[in-house]
Design a protein that fits this description.
By secondary structure, the protein is an alpha+beta fold. It is built from 11 helices and 8 strands. The two termini are about 35 Å apart. Flavin-adenine dinucleotide (FAD) binds next to strand 1 and helix 11.
Length: about 375
């Protein structure tokens, strides 16, 4: 692995840094998990898109810059370094888009990706159900073909749909062949949320933000033309395979890039410097260790990008990323709260970050499940 950045990569970093310095809002935006905050974030995302910074690694014709994976990592580092807002379009651009690039038809890609990049279509992820979380293959929501009407009829319920109440579209898994084995007979659907028969009910998280929704499908008819190129992604009854590509992005490279943790680790060091009375002894050692772990995650990711570029996709190893970043995020915020002492118990960026870090071992597949995957599919250990 050659860790020297090329001239053009350095120039790309500088261009990104300059643009961000001139454009990142001076004050943090309100939470993107509230209705007003979501709108403010969309304005920001549209500004990114207008100057072709929304999806740098995508082709130019979809609004990107044809940037390499290395350049994408550079952009992410600069984005977080500049303290730029969280991406509320993340489930579309970081999860669905890589899956569309891999499994979408030309028509689906040509029409859906530019609208997603421009934050016109806003996508949420409809996988979990009241009886299917870790056991995703237990999905009961049904999709039945109606040939006469030319479309699909959806029934069932999804839950924990992040920002579902603010989105326009959902990508979800539905059972199309109830007779087939649990992992077979599932299909990956692309569904406009204004389809008659679809009800989206937002609900509050413990921190008060309306970050989640339940989505109900009551014989909701999705015509074949509801989504250009068709509402099915990757073929009928092939949904499990397509979904595994999405989980690879969610756990691995795209959802949580190292830039986010490098920036947070730098902020933690700044906090320790500003609290000399609290930052003593073992706590200083922990802050140092956490800073080093953030650097280690960057090195790990650089090695992974080398693998990808050389044709060795991470597959099940993306579970290692997920374990690492989610546990690092908790350690990092716990150390910050200790440094802050009683102030850590008040409502501030660190305490809010701490609350959200606790969700890290749950979303994108729980860490217990990731450990099962690593044990069985990376280490080849027997099931007990
Ligand atoms: C912040 C956040 C955002 C989310 N966003 C979305 C979203 O946008 N779309 C979406 O579809 N879902 C979303 N989810 C839901 C998430 O995917 C599920 O919560 C997760 O998959 C776990 O499922 P569950 O909650 O049903 O827990 P369960 O599956 O019931 O698990 C309960 C506990 O049992 C453990 N467990 C279960 N099976 C095993 C096993 N075989 N071996 C060892 N331990 C096991 C789990 O690790 C967990 O600790 C989100 C969740 C959170 C917290």
């Amino acid at each position: 692995m050659d860790l020297t950045w090329s001239e053009s990569e350095l120039a790309f970093r500088e261009e990104a840094r300059d643009w961000l310095a001139a454009n990142v809002p001076a004050e943090p935006l309100p939470s993107g998990d509230t209705r007003d905050g979501f709108s403010a974030h969309l304005e920001w995302e549209r500004r990114l898109f207008a100057d072709r910074w929304a999806v740098v690694s995508w082709p130019v014709e979809y609004g990107g810059r044809d940037a390499s994976l290395w350049e994408w990592l550079i952009f992410e580092e600069e984005y977080h370094r500049a303290g730029a807002p969280q991406r509320v379009t993340q489930n579309g651009i970081f999860l669905l888009a890589p899956t569309l690039f891999e499994f979408g038809t030309q028509e689906q890609r040509d029409t859906l990706l530019p609208r997603m990049a421009a934050a016109q279509d806003l996508w949420c992820q409809g996988w979990s159900e009241p009886g299917a979380g870790s056991d995703l293959a237990g999905i009961r929501s049904r999709a039945e073909r109606d040939d006469e009407a030319g479309g699909w009829r959806l029934t069932g319920q999804k839950t924990w749909t992040t920002r579902g109440a603010f989105c326009t579209h959902l990508f979800g898994l539905f059972r199309t062949d109830p007779q087939a084995g649990r992992h077979r007979g599932l299909t990956y659907f692309l569904v406009p949320l204004d389809t008659p028969g679809v009800t989206v009910r937002g609900f509050e998280r413990l921190d008060g933000d309306e970050g989640f929704a339940e989505v109900f499908f009551e014989d909701a008819f999705v015509p074949d033309g509801a989504v250009p190129g068709g509402a099915v992604l990757g073929g009928v009854d092939n949904g499990w395979r397509v979904a595994m590509a999405t989980t690879g992005s969610e756990r691995g490279l795209t959802l949580r890039s190292p830039g986010r943790f490098l920036r947070a680790a730098d902020r933690l060091v700044e906090l320790a410097r500003s609290q000399p009375e609290a930052a003593t002894g073992p706590l200083v050692d922990r802050v140092t260790e956490i800073w080093m772990q953030a650097q280690a995650y960057q090195q790990f990711t650089l090695a992974q990008v080398t693998d990808i570029v050389e044709g060795r996709p991470p597959g099940a190893r993306s579970s290692l990323n997920k374990l690492y970043w989610s546990e690092l995020d908790i350690r990092l915020h716990e150390a910050a709260l200790e440094l802050l002492g009683p102030e850590g118990q008040t409502d501030n960026l660190w305490s809010r970050g701490f609350q959200f870090s606790l969700a890290g071992p749950i979303y994108a597949g729980t860490n217990e499940i990731q450990r099962n995957i690593v044990a069985e599919r990376v280490l080849g250990l027997p099931r007990t």
